[in-house]
Specification:
With about 110 residues, this protein is of the alpha+beta class. The chain has one domain. Strands 1-2 form a two-stranded parallel sheet. Helix 1 links the parallel strand 1 and strand 2. The protein is elongated, with a radius of gyration of 17 Å. The protein starts with about 30 loop residues before the first strand and ends in a 30-residue tail after the last helix.
C-alpha cells in the first residue's frame, strides 16, 4: 500500500465527488466534513453538503463530521431525511411563539 492521499475540497469545487454514476465518490474511503455551523441544512447554499452527506449515509461510507456536517446529521436524524421548507424567520427559523406573526407571503399563500 502506498501513502494515504488527502483530497481537500470546499463547497465550490465539490461537484466531481457528489454521488453520481460518473463521479469520484466511489474512490473515497472516508469523508470528513466541516464547515460553517451557522449554515443551516435546509438552506440552498448547503445543498451540495447535503447531497454528499446523503450519499455517505446511503452507501455506509465512513463519515466524520463537525460544523455543518454535524448539523446535517442532527437534522436528518430528526426528520428521517425529509426535505422541509422552513418559512419562518426568513428561512432561519424562529421561536415557536413567533409562528403566529407569519404573514401570508411567508406561508406561501
Amino acid at each position: 500500500m502506498g501513502d494515504p492521499e488527502y483530497i481537500i475540497r470546499d463547497i465550490s469545487n465539490l461537484d466531481d465527488y457528489l454521488f453520481e454514476s460518473q463521479s469520484m465518490f466511489d474512490c473515497l474511503d472516508f469523508v470528513f466534513m466541516d464547515g460553517d455551523p451557522n449554515l443551516l441544512p435546509w438552506m440552498p447554499k448547503a445543498e451540495k453538503f447535503a447531497l454528499l452527506f446523503k450519499a455517505c449515509k446511503a452507501t455506509n461510507k465512513t463519515f466524520f463530521s463537525a460544523g455543518i456536517g454535524l448539523t446535517l446529521l442532527v437534522y436528518y436524524c430528526a426528520t428521517s431525511f425529509a426535505n422541509l421548507k422552513i418559512v419562518n424567520g426568513h428561512g432561519k427559523g424562529s421561536n415557536i411563539s413567533d409562528i403566529n406573526t407569519m404573514n401570508e407571503k411567508c406561508a406561501g399563500r
